[in-house]
Amino acid sequence: MLSRKTQYAFRALTCLAENYGKGPILISHISEEKKIPLKFLENILNELKKADMLESKKGKGGGYMLKVSPKKINLAKVIRIINGPIALLPCVSLNFYEKCVDCDEKHCGLRKMMTITRDATLKILEKRTLHDILFAGH
Amino acid sequence: MLSRKTQYAFRALTCLAENYGKGPILISHISEEKKIPLKFLENILNELKKADMLESKKGKGGGYMLKVSPKKINLAKVIRIINGPIALLPCVSLNFYEKCVDCDEKHCGLRKMMTITRDATLKILEKRTLHDILFAGH
DNA sequence: TAATATCCTACCAAATTAGTAGGCAAATTT
DNA sequence: AAATTTGCCTACTAATTTGGTAGGATATTA
Fold first, then answer.
1. Which protein residues have any CB–strand D distance under 7 A?
2. How confident is chain A (138 residues) per 10-residue block, as mean pLDDT?
3. What pTM value is reported for the model?
């Protein structure tokens, strides 16, 4: 399951996607509109910025904005930044690979099943974008 | 990601699947062969038994065994017993549904994306079985 | 320089994870 | 019947993760 933090991230990004092209949006605005604890949201947006998904402006008239179009931000990317691996096992993860202890990967049947699962999941999460979330919402 | 406990469960079940039809297998045997901490494994096997996936016998000649053929135990079932929900959001889970706070499900775009993802994942995890794990292993 | 925002460091409580310890209960064997 | 073998049950614990909060530093604008 995705952490609550990741759900918050998606909500915040949806808000920024809705306002794409309209200049910086205040954290406090997103916090109120999407009912996300303000200080927690600060952390989240900052992480997304460090991962190069957002840009920010300080001072009056400041806030956050998407760095690229909502159509170019896929769901897998967001999940990887805030939540971590998408695969069900570390030994199957493309971006967070870790070797399992006491497991011969070449002959691990479980690993093969989880690889298939990962591919099916990624096929969807890497194709759908923030724009799709907006569009599916009505 | 699946918990380590769930990985242990799969390893143990694989061992029991390999020995299906050969009578009870000792916890201690599984523990050694699959390198799983004995007492922890006890808990795991007991949970699987309570979920009606295994049967057990006490005393000499005792141990655990699969209640049905490895071909009839799919991966989704194991995950749900030991790990919990398979869906990425609680509001999308079929077996562990929980309402999200401040979210209108009818018009939640994220929910729709996660429903599609869940369906793709389940299509695989509910079709593959312990037998497939064995078979894929060589 | 005052006001407005984000940024940064550090802390905290609650929940979850990954076990361990020790004895009880039921079979089986002697 | 007693001893042995094996799973069953309850409880505890340490480490990690999750979901935040507090307070000030820093940058921008007016």
1. A 3-5, 8, 37-40, 42-43, 57-62; B 24, 26-28, 39, 42-43, 45-46, 49-50, 56-64
2. 98 98 98 98 98 98 98 98 98 95 88 98 98 90
3. 0.96
Q: Are A16 and A132 in contact (CB under 8 A)?
A: no
Find the angle CA(A102)-CA(A107)-CA(A110) to the nearest 5 degrees.
80
End-to-end Cα distance, chain B:
25
The three-state secondary structure class of B136 is helix
Q: Which residue has the tokens 């939540």?
A: A83
How far is residue A19 from each of residues A3, A57, A62, B128, B134, measured CA to CA in Å? 25, 15, 14, 43, 51
- Chain A residues interacting with chain B (CB cutoff of 8 angstroms): 1-2, 7, 10-11, 14, 34-35, 75, 84-85, 87-90, 100-102, 107-110, 112-113, 116-117, 120-121, 123-125, 128, 132-138
